[in-house]
Design a protein that fits this description.
The chain is an all-alpha fold and 85 residues long. 65% of the residues lie in helices and 0% in strands. The radius of gyration is 13 Å and the shape is globular.
Length: 85
C-alpha cells in the first residue's frame, strides 16, 4: 500500500480538523486534555506527521463536536482524482 501521509486527502483531513478545533474554541492543549493525551499528540496529528485512523477520527469528532460526514466530504473531494491508497 502506498504511503498516504502527504496526499491531498490527508492534507485536507488535517486542515479540516484544525479548522474544527479552532472553530470549537479549543487550543491544542485543551483538546489534548479532553483526549487524555499530551499536547504533542495533537501537534503531530495537526502537522500531518501522524496519520489519523478511523477510531481516532470518531473520537475527535465527538470531543471537538464536528460533523463526521462534512469532514469526510471534504476529504472525498480532495481525493477525487486520486484512485490509489
Amino acid at each position: 500500500m502506498a504511503k498516504t501521509i502527504r496526499t491531498n486527502g490527508q492534507l485536507a483531513l488535517v486542515r479540516a480538523l484544525v479548522d474544527a478545533r479552532q472553530n470549537a474554541g479549543l487550543s491544542q492543549q485543551q483538546l489534548a486534555a479532553k483526549l487524555n493525551r499530551h499536547q504533542s499528540f495533537v501537534a503531530r496529528l495537526e502537522s500531518g506527521e501522524r496519520r489519523i485512523d478511523v477510531v481516532e477520527f470518531t473520537v475527535l469528532a465527538r470531543v471537538i463536536g464536528f460533523d463526521k460526514n462534512e469532514v469526510l466530504s471534504i476529504v472525498e473531494a480532495a481525493t477525487e482524482s486520486d484512485h490509489k491508497i
